[in-house]
Design brief:
6 helices; 50% helix; alpha+beta
Length: 161
């Protein structure tokens, strides 16, 4: 493929100071559009993620208080402190009792804390709330039902809020 050196030089003169020369012209155009006109979308997404985080907090507080969510500061990934479940999280990493509880009993696949910090974060799981409300509620229902079975309690569903 032949390149036009003068055209390349003009392109680099425009994008060099922004450090955007590493992608294609399409990626650069999309990035510039996002920066220039993306604020309304970003604000809607932020409000949606915030409502999802509030749902996780309220749901787990009511149905599975053994799992304590930690509010993220800048993302849609919520850390769940599962230490009160009393499951081993140190032996086996992603194959620990804690991880297997979520996979086999709750039938949800979360990101295991062990992978992010070893022993210090082993009792944590991470849930991604950047999904539809229906999917998040289904995951939370499964988690709550598994926790309730573990403690010998009953399960009640919530409405699709």
């Amino acid at each position: 493929m032949l390149q036009s050196e003068p055209l390349r030089a003009r392109y680099l003169a425009v994008v060099e100071h922004t450090h955007t020369r590493f992608g294609s012209v399409f990626a650069t155009t999309a990035m510039l559009a996002a920066y220039q006109r993306g604020r309304p979308w970003r604000e809607r997404a932020r409000r949606y993620f915030e409502s999802q985080i509030e749902l996780v907090e309220a749901f787990l507080g009511a149905r599975a208080p053994e799992i304590a969510p930690s509010r993220p500061q800048a993302s849609y990934l919520v850390w769940l402190d599962c230490s009160r479940l009393g499951l081993d999280a140190l032996v086996g990493g992603a194959r620990s009792e804690l991880c297997l509880f979520f996979e086999q009993e709750a039938r949800v696949k979360l990101s295991d804390g062990w992978s992010y910090g070893g022993e210090a974060t082993a009792q944590y799981q991470r849930i991604n709330v950047a999904c539809s409300r229906a999917i998040l509620i289904e995951a939370l229902e499964r988690i709550a039902a598994a926790v309730e079975r573990r403690r010998g309690g009953s399960s009640r569903r919530i409405e699709n809020a």
